[in-house]
Amino acid sequence: MTLSNAANSGRGPADVDLSIAIGALRFRNPIVAASGTFGYGLEFAHLVDLSQLGAMVTKGLSREPIDGAPLPRLCDTPSGMLNAVGLQNVGVRAFVEQKLPALRKFDIPVLANVFGYCQEDYVEVIRVLEEAEGLAGYELNISCPNVKKGGLQFGGDPFAAADVTREARRAARRRPLWVKLSPLIADIGLIAKAIEAEGADALNVANTYPAMAVDWRTRKSRLGNPTGGLSGPAIKPITLRLVWEAQKVVQIPIVGLGGVETASDVLDYLLVGASAVQVGTASFADPKISERLGTDLKGALFDSNLFSISELKGKLSAEFG
Ligand SMILES: Cc1cc2nc3c(=O)[nH]c(=O)nc-3n(C[C@H](O)[C@H](O)[C@H](O)COP(=O)(O)O)c2cc1C
């Protein structure tokens, strides 16, 4: 601990208030376990004290079950990881019947990650979830090919992103709607504003980056699919900029995700304007990381004589260099 006013004040890290609000939702801290890296939460419940996390997001849920991509689905890359899981999931109805009742017993807000290949898919998944109890909100994954528009990504086109957000917003009558952006966009401001205008409650910036890893000896992709999504520390500087650009143009809260491993990573995202972060790849190396980050965050803020998130959030200096 550095010598600071805090050290002399009789207060300790336990006095740091990590609580945050994202729209109508209140969380005990800004650490959210990211979709696809935390299963349905149940798989982690014996390893992690779920009540120590701010929230969690489920694996992506589709209208019908999906078997997923051929093996191998993961491969290491320098400072990161590639995945091509192929959005494997049990389907929204099986989630509601088989997973959600058990998940409801844990003291953690749960957001359901929703995806589809056309607007009707998104609406139908939300319609089924609206009938169920025990969810805090929805996270729309728009990094999916829009089959009806000939393979264009919803997340890459402001009009398609706005359309799917509008329909999802209409369907999501009971709960907040977060929209998770694709990082593969020319101008994040355009997409962010279009989604905000359709009533999204928060923007999640961002998903994985389309990428490849090959083995020249075997002449094959190192994944079962030719390409995958890059995640982990390698993408943090790129995503950090996207968060910073997005927060300049929207009023709604932004959740930053990409390469968060340490309390410093969390604080970097908060500094550029994020209200919270999600932790993905880091949970593969250490399933307890999301639990520990809350404690580390209190220590790091206390050492800098800060006692709440709001003292740092969005405070990036206007003087650069
Ligand atoms: C194995 C794996 C599966 C993922 N599955 C999903 C998914 O189903 N839906 C989704 O929106 N994002 C999914 N993601 C993306 C993560 O939620 C997160 O946006 C991304 O990995 C960047 O964060 P990170 O660098 O902390 O991993 C997945 C990522 C990984 C590594």
Secondary-structure map:
Layout: H1 5-8, E1 20-22, E2 25-27, E3 31-33, E4 55-57, E5 74-77, E6 80-83, H2 92-103, E7 110-114, H3 119-130, E8 137-141, E9 145-146, E10 152-153, H4 158-171, E11 177-180, H5 188-197, E12 202-205, E13 209-211, E14 214-215, E15 220-221, E16 228-231, H6 236-249, E17 254-257, H7 263-271, E18 276-279, H8 282-285, H9 289-303
Parallel strand pairs: 3-4, 3-18, 4-7, 7-8, 8-11, 11-12, 12-17, 17-18
Antiparallel strand pairs: 1-2, 5-6, 6-16, 9-10, 13-16, 14-15
Bound molecules: flavin mononucleotide.
Flavin mononucleotide is lined by residues 34-37, 59-60, 81, 83, 85, 87, 113, 141, 180, 207-208, 231-232, 235, 257-260, 279-282.
Got a strand count? Answer: 18
Q: What is the number of helical segments per DSSP (H or I, 4+ residues)? A: 9
Into which percentage range does the β-strand content fall?
A: 15-25%
Assembly context of the chains? single chain
Stretches with pLDDT under 50, minimum 5 residues: none
Radius of gyration: 19 Å
Could you tell me how far the N terminus lies from the C terminus, measured between alpha carbons in angstroms? 27 Å
User: In one word, what is the shape?
Assistant: globular
Mean pLDDT: 95
Instruction: Please write the string of helix (H) and strand (E) elements.
Output: HEEEEEEHEHEEEHEHEEEEEHEHEHH
What is the helix content?
A: 25-40%
Q: What ions, cofactors and ligands are bound?
A: flavin mononucleotide
- Lateral arrangement of strands in the main beta sheet: 3-4-7-8-11-12-17-18
Helix-strand makeup class? alpha/beta
Largest sheet: 8 strands, parallel, barrel
